[in-house]
Every structure is written in C-alpha cells, then in structure tokens.
Amino acid sequence: MPELPEVESFRRYVEETSLNQEISGVSFRNEHMLLNTSKAKLVKTLKGNKLAGTLRHGKYLFIRLAKGGHLLLHFGLTGDVAYVDEKDDEPRFTVLLLEFKKSGSFAFTDSRQMGKVGLVDDVNKFLRNKGWGPDALQVTKDEFIDRFESRRTNIKTALMNQKLVAGVGNEFSDEILFQCGLHPESRVDKLGRKGLENVYKQMVTILKKAVSVNADRDRLSQYFFPGNRKAGLECPRCGGKTEFKTVGGRSAYFCPSCQELVA
DNA sequence: TGACTTGTTCAAAT
DNA sequence: GATTTGAACAAGTC
Predict the structure, then answer these.
(1) Residue A256, Cα to own-chain centre: how many angstroms?
(2) I need a surface site. Which of A39, A124, A138, A251 has the fewest CB within 10 A?
C-alpha cells in the first residue's frame, strides 16, 4: 500500500524516466478519480506540455508542469506508476497515459480506482485547504510533540491522521509502534513528551530506512511487520505471539507481551 | 460467493 | 467549534 516510502520511490521513478519530454497524447479513463478539474481541462493542460519536476508531501505526489501548475497524483490503495517503451505495452488498469512525442509513455495505474488525479496551481495553498499536517520526514521533533501531546485518541489512529502528520499509513504505523514497544491503543495524551519523542524518533528512522531501499520490503529485514503483517507470528524481541485487533476501524498487528498499553 | 483490504471523506457523537 | 468515532466507498483477490 502506498505510504510515504512508496510515494517517494514513485517520485524518483518519475524523475528518472519521464521528465522534460513533450507530451503528444493524453488518455484518461476514470472520471470519478478527478480532483479539482475536468477531464477536458486535464487533457488540454497536459497535451503539448512537459513534466518538469516533482514534489512529494505525505502520500501526495505533485509533478510540476513546464507551462505552470502541477499534476497531482494520489495513489489510494493500489496506485502505481510505470514507464513503458512501446505504446502497446500499456499496463493493465491504466488510468492516465501520457505518450511522449519522442518515444515511450508514462502511465498512472490504479486497479481499485481509489486514487486521485488532479491539477493544482499552488501546492502550499492546496495542502493548507486540505488541512494536511507537515510531511513525516520534514516535521521537527518539537512540532511533532506539539501536534500530538493533547490528543485524546489512540496512538495508532493519531499516527495515521494526515492532519497531524502526513505520510504514515497502516502498515508502517504498526512497525513504528512495535519498535517503540507501545501498544497501538495507548492514549496519546498519556505518553508524555518522552514517549512522544520516542515515537517521533522511530517514525523518522523507519521511514528514512524504507525510503533508502525504495520501499522494498525484502530489504527491510531488520524490521518485523513490513510485508509481514499477520497474527500468530513469533515476536523477534520477546518470543510472544502477535495478535490482530481492529483499532480505530483499521487492522492492527502487534505483540501484546512487549508492546505496553499506556492508558 | 462474500468477506476482507486501506486512504480518505463525511456525518454523527462528544 | 473542535475533536473524535465510525461508516461508507471502490473493486480486486482469494
């Protein structure tokens, strides 16, 4: 599932494959995925334009356009990007296809169609309107603590709340809390500055590591849950058994014997 | 076949 | 009003 590390690797992929090429053809299929724009405007804006640069905030990717503004991509559950050399190699579930004049195409794919495609002029204004918090890899320790310390909800829900800090999803929230030795239902306002400082440190450490390996779960073997969220696993720290529980309407996996419940 | 999955949004509750 | 909770949505997978 595309969380911050995946979106960052998508960003790099766009940088490496698709910048500065004139777009000669645009196809777009799923109108219910549009954000802030119409299909006609999207196609008109992209045709003859070039992708000129990239910017990521949380799980959002903004691709700067040479003629002004940005193409916005949100990946939902199943969004992905692909560059293909040949036209007839168009990937399955392509939502947006940009054909480059010289050669090749850029595709945004999304099998479950929960992602978003849009046009954004002013990125900061867009983020402000959404109410999104600072990016999880940009936020400072003090700002993180300020935003969290008076919250009366559980820590897992708070970490996934994009308005507090943007970028953490379900899978990495489980790992952050595992590394902290904190039960996902621990109350945020009971953790204290020390507790929150630890959450912050683990969040940054884990996300940075995941970014450094392009979110490849096979290269995160020093961690426990990424790519491996199941109940009944043996905990590598204490030998206990992992459990499943629904927390804040989301699946949570954790080790009840070494993740302390602070309530 | 239908239960299950998650990021986001919206309505309802506090 | 601000915060929190919970349900709804979409659709492919097993």
Answers:
(1) 27
(2) A124
Nucleic chain C: which protein residues 122-181 of A have CB below 7 A from it?
150-154, 157
Residue A189: both structure tokens together: 């306002």
In percent, the amount of chain A with pLDDT more than 90 equals: 73
- The whole-angstrom separation of Cα A162 and Cα A151 is 14
The H or E element spanning position A28 is strand A23-28
Reported confidence tier of residue A160, pLDDT bands at 50, 70, 90: very high
Protein residue minimizing CA–C1' distance to B9:
A130
Residue A82: phi, psi to the nearest 5? Answer: -150, 135
Q: Using alpha carbons, list the distances in angstroms from residue A167 to A98, A151, A180, A258.
A: 27, 19, 18, 26
> Considering the entire predicted model, what is its pTM?
0.93
The answer to whether A175 and A251 have CB atoms below 8 angstroms apart is no
A251 CA to B3 C1' in angstroms comes to: 14
Query: What's the helix, strand, coil split of chain A in %, to 5?
Result: 35, 25, 40
The SS3 of residue A84 is strand
pLDDT digits (tens, 9 = 90+) for A172-210: 999 999 999 999 999 999 999 999 999 999 999 999 999
Where are the extended beta strands (E) located within A47-189? 51-57, 60-65, 70-74, 79-84, 94-100, 105-110, 116-120
pLDDT in tens, A40-88: 999 999 999 999 999 999 999 999 999 999 999 999 888 999 999 876 6
Protein CB footprint (7 Å) on chain B nucleotides: 4-9
Q: What mean pLDDT, rounded, does chain A reach?
A: 91
CA-to-CA dists, residue A125 to A21, A36, A121, A146, A182, angstroms: 28, 13, 8, 22, 35
